[in-house]
Amino acid sequence: MSSSADATTRSREAPWTDPQWAGVKWTIYRGVAYDITGFVDRHPGGQWLINLAVGRDATALFESYHLRHDVASAVFQKLPVLKGFPVHKVPQAPRPNDSQLYVAIKDRVRTEVFRGSENRGAHRRGSELAALAVLSFAVLTYCLYLRWTGFAAGLLLGVAGAWIGVTIQHCGNHGAMSTIPAVNVALGMCNDLIGGASLTWRYHHQVSHHIHTNDEALDEDVCSMYPLLRFDTRLPRRWFHRWQHLYVWFAYPALHLAFQLGDFTSLLTNRTVGAELLGATTMEKSALVAGKALHYALLLVLPWALHGGAAALAGAVGYSITLSIILAMVFFVSHNVPESKPLPAGPDTREVLFGPVEARDWGVQQVLASCSWGARVGNFFTGGLNLQVEHHLFPAISFAHYPAIARVVRDECARRGVRYTHFSSLAGNLRGFLCCMRQLGSAPDEPAVVAAVTKRGGKAE
Ligand code: HEM
């Protein structure tokens, strides 16, 4: 899958290889190519976020990240338009603001939840206390780990690592933890501390997963664990998938190790499974290497020096297990329940979820392909990932506001007859996940028609 899964797959005449556009940081917004070279350093959301737009159609990223669309889009009038740019060679991204559902929800969130306070950045404030709690817990558990290095302390440290993973790094990398970009960058880089890589995560998670949710070819979360796990009926079924709902638990602990392999491969190949690192700077790549060094120094080298190799290795294994299980559990359950996939036994949502990218209603896709569980308590402990539908619609809004936003989303979905899936608890969501994995493990293959079209460059033939 890996080399062909990116919506920005290059073709021979494409702008990525044409010397005319080589020194230009270009992006496409609604069919027009812009030169953003002079703007990236001035981007109010931070350079590291607008870098994601470089070299691709960024319409979906742009429209899903700016609550004040009017303010953000006004900038395009001042940006240089690239005349003669082969826009048609670049795969078209979804256009969230073409979704009536999404626009209606966005308008109501502004008027009913923020009531004008978004003009002062209120939508990116509110999770400071949660951040403090998570960081304090992490420091405390790391002190315990250093003092009593071993398997048990590693298990506990893994809980802290996972809490950082779902809350601090996740929201920081989305630009949702603070109105100050530098704070978001710093919190986002905690991903490197816990064993991930904030750079590759942004491309994997934001460019691939968030934009193309549950698309078997373009959403890295769906295709990167195949053939081990089959998350979609368009991925060919293998004999062992019928037991995937059982062995998924044993596959989880490998996640931390898989991150390591994946991050270094991405650095060498300049891509994640689902997206090319087209806007990544040398500084960002150096930070990835430094982050890995720091992670291993803290997890292994320092404890090794203090307590010896056996204790340090046992600690690292314990860490890896809890970190992986918690992260996988929280992330996987949100898009893999029978309601979020067109399965033989379920309602037919093929058109919305499997249709050509250009024709999809992005807002409806996000709602149908995601599910939420619980309310405020779950929100605090998962950094808003429990309210996954709301997170997918508003990734750059602080999770502190998701419970209020959820009321609007549910109401608007009910008015428009769009199914909104909510479980009262994580246990309910987990049951749905296992049921979905079992069904996916035995469901017949679905033709991958759409994937074939998008892989050829986003144009139907
Ligand atoms: C492609 C061209 C882009 C332009 C012209 C642009 C422009 C802007 C402008 C003018 C603002 C200030 C908005 C305000 O005060 O309400 C802003 C904020 C922001 N941008 Fe962008 N942006 C671009 C791309 C991106 C991308 C690709 C991302 C994310 C992946 C992003 C994420 C953000 C965030 C998180 C903020 C702060 C949000 C807020 O205050 O509501 N931007 N951008």
Automatic annotation (TrEMBL):
SMART domains: Cyt-b5. Keywords: Heme, Iron, Membrane, Metal-binding, Oxidoreductase, Transmembrane, Transmembrane helix. Gene3D superfamilies: Cytochrome b5-like heme/steroid binding domain (3.10.120.10). The keyword Secreted does not apply. One of its GO terms (molecular function) is oxidoreductase activity, acting on paired donors, with oxidation of a pair of donors resulting in the reduction of molecular oxygen to two molecules of water. It comes from the Eukaryota. The chain crosses the membrane at residues 129-148, 246-268, 289-306, 312-333. Residues 26-69 form the Cytochrome b5 heme-binding domain. InterPro entries: Cyt_B5-like_heme/steroid-bd, Cyt_B5-like_heme/steroid_sf, Cyt_B5_heme-BS, FA_desaturase_dom, Fatty_acid_desaturase. GO terms for biological process: long-chain fatty acid biosynthetic process; unsaturated fatty acid biosynthetic process. The keyword Heme applies. PROSITE patterns: CYTOCHROME_B5_1, CYTOCHROME_B5_2. GO terms for cellular component: membrane. This is Cytochrome b5 heme-binding domain-containing protein. It comes from Raphidocelis subcapitata.
